[in-house]
Amino acid sequence: MTEIPTEEYILKCTSACAGCSDTLTLRYVLKAAGPDMVLVVPACCTSVIQGAYPNTAMNVPVYNVAFAAAAACASGMSAAFQAAGRKTRVIVYAGDGGTVDIGIQSLSGAFERGTDFLYICYDNEAYGNTGMQRSGSTPAGARTTTTPAGKVQTKKDLDGIVAAHNPPYMATACAAYPRDLFKKVEKALSIRGPKFIHVLAPCPPGWRFSSEKSVEMGKLAVKTGMWILYEREQGKVTISGPSKAAMIKPLPLEEYLAPQGRFKGIDAASVALLKAQAEKTAKRLLREEEGTC
Amino acid sequence: MTTRMRLAISRPTKGSSGKTGSWRVFRPVVDKEKCNACGICAMLCPEAAIDEELEVDLEYCKGCGICAHECPKSAISMKREEK
Q: I want to staple A171 with a disulfide (CB 3.0 to 4.6 A). Which of A182, A192, A231, B41 is the partner?
């Protein structure tokens, strides 16, 4: 088993909400990357939790950029480091709004150019720091401040979009499984070219559950099959351990939906839609793993 | 003043968001009798407020309660802070 370093690159303490899985994810991303790295952060929760100027909680270089520009900025940085003969790692750490909606054009551009960088999207399925407005990543049936009766549309298949760019490495992870996340970030950074990791980050105030359930909610998402952990290396899919176990005997979806206030009063049609979508994704990934698709 | 100094650069500082321990409503209390030092609490603490010796830094612990909820031995309990 790989040892996780004890160094912390976030000084106590960020101004993130209690029980925030964004900081939990970032802790392990930075541990895996080490000190020789630059973090590019577009507008998202991470850009507001760093602390008040002239102080910051981040003990690594952080470049805060405009919402749509994260991957474009990282492309320039990566090229500059390469020209200077430096091995500094460039990591984009963006929320789902800055990836799925606003930043998707620069993300697509950087992947098409084959920029050597790692793009991490931590997905709390809405615009968290502005007050939980719906994003392209919000699942069907979820209440947000702009969809008070529950979202009608389904979640955008970001992983499908990224996979269509044929990156050398992409993976999904979850904040509730830090060891799995650490291993995936470490593996991604050992490969040259554009890499992508999509991390599910349960959000206590946004998803309306109490702060101590952050990790439990992430585990439930994996155990019910709503979130599937896998890696795609050069197109070859490997489903990760926790999801493999969950696929044999998944928990009923209701166990994931019931504790969350955002799914309160969800109609049967939306539950059926979520279920059908989760099953479809699982089946497709299993087929891809077998190599029959 | 050099250009670099004029740029709005924040410096890494401990406590850049203040002493976040003041946010706490419930305080984690560890029962050392029950604890088997597995370290899951320290691993899952979002703020790294639990150190290698599994001592909670109450100056910064926000009291989210993940440690108590995830402890396999139920060795951590959340006690209401007295004002």
A: A231
